[in-house]
Please model this.
Amino acid sequence: MHILVANDDGYLAPGLLALVDILRPLGRVTVIAPEQNHSGASNSLTLSRPLTVNKVVGGERDGFLYVNGTPTDCVHIALTGLLDSRPDIVVSGINQGENMGEDVLYSGTVAAAIEGVMFGIPAIAFSQVDKGWQGLDAAAQVARDIVLQQINHPVDGDLSPGTKPTLLNVNIPNHSYEQLNSWRVTRLGNRHHSQDVIMQKNPRGEPIYWIGPPGLAKDSTEGTDFCAIQNGQVSITPLQLDLSHLAMREQMKASNWNKN
Model:
C-alpha cells in the first residue's frame, strides 16, 4: 500500500505530522506539501514561475518533501513525474478548521484530494472543525480508521467505466476518540453569504482589505455535514467532479437553445 499525503497548511503543520505518523503502519507513505500555508488556494496551479521540491533531512519530518507552490501543485508534481510508483490512495490534511458546504470550492485541502481523483486515484480530505489543534491525536485516529475503511471496503469498486474514483470530504469534531465513534455519510449543506470585507489602512494611509469570515450555516438540516457536526458526529461527504447541471441542460435543450 502506497499512500501519498499532502495538505494546505504547509509541511510544518501539526495536522500533517499527526496524519503521517498514524498512517505509517499501513504501508509506504510519501509526503509532499506546500512550503507555506495555502489555505483558500482551491485548485490553483502555479504557471507563472518554476517550482522547486526540497526534502527535509533529520528530525520528526525526515523525508518530507515540500514545494514552493499550492496543494494542487504538490499532488500534480508527484503524480506526473516525481514519484517512482503510483500511489494507491491520496490523503490530504489534517486541516486546521472545517471544510463544509461551499468551503469545498475554496479549500486547498479538498483541492489536493481532487487532484488525486483527477488522475484516477481515490482520495480523502480530512479537516478538524475547530482551529487550535485540540484533540488532534483523536482526529488522526479517526482519519486512520476511515482510510482503513476505504482500503478494506472501497466504495468505488462497482462504478461504471469512465467515472472518477472515490472522493471523500471528512470533517472531524475536536473531541476525544471515544466521543468520535459515530460517523455519518452526509451531503454538503450551505452557508449564508460571507461576512463583509474588513477594510484597514496601511502605514501610508492607503486602504487594504481582508477577506471577511465565512457565513454561518444556512442549510444545516438532517443529512448535511453541518447537522452531523452539530451533533458531535464525524461527517463523511462523498463528492463528485462533474458540475454539469443536468436538469437545466434538458430544460435548455427543450427551449431551443441548441442552434444548427
